Amino acid sequence: MTGGVFVEESGGGSPTVVFLHGQGASGVVWDGVVAGLPGYRCVAVDLPGHGRSGRLPAYSAEAYASAVAPALPAGPLTLVGHSLGGMVALALADPALGLDVDAVLVLAMKVTWTEEEARRRAERASRPPDHFPDRGLALRRFAKLAGLSAHSEGLASGVEPDGDGWRLSHDPATAAGPPVPPEELRALAGRVAAPLHLACGDRDAMVSPDDLALLGRPVTTLRGAGHNVHIEHPSVVAQLVRAAVPAPRPAS
């Protein structure tokens, strides 16, 4: 753990792929995708305020990126982000941050929010964390929130002791504040110098391909996929990663 940010590395090949999860999840949601990338060096991050990572005083794309960047290995890096993690990937790829980024893949990132969606988001963020009398109940709640099976490995990363019981380890404040306006997300995408790939499922109830296309780049529509495409169809996402990652650089 570097600077309070937990990362889990696997594989020792090249190139290096960094995985950034969505709201309320942790790095374990990428296990299926990582399994489909033998020979790659894979780095799954628990974003600040989630999983095994520490919390931040406030959360924004820039705050996430500033906290995560020091925990990453040297580049070149391919950044893969789902939903919230997609926004973090865009911020990490900003040349001003100084990371060596070869490619960016953004999955199912919500660009526009209705007033009702923003209201519900703020309401959830204002609630005190749920308290669970036993660990099993907390694990099942985390599995549901993250889109995982209740029997998935690594669920323990999403819960922590809470007095005489348990709670989810993610910080409700990660959803505080208004959503990032579409024009700011588009500007963030516009600063990415590396090849930027966007993908979204045609059965995603939260994000449509047209919504994601507001970032100003072509969108790959994934047939039969919902919001958690990396969990529902890990082999498809692994294929997208292989297509996006440039060939290893020759030794100089």
TrEMBL record:
Keywords: Hydrolase. Residues 17-239 form the AB hydrolase-1 domain. InterPro entries: AB_hydrolase_1, AB_hydrolase_fold, AB_hydrolase_sf. The keyword Hydrolase applies. Residues 153-182 are annotated as: Disordered. One of its GO terms (cellular component) is membrane. It holds the Pfam family Abhydrolase_6. GO terms for molecular function: hydrolase activity. This is Alpha/beta hydrolase. It comes from Phytohabitans flavus.
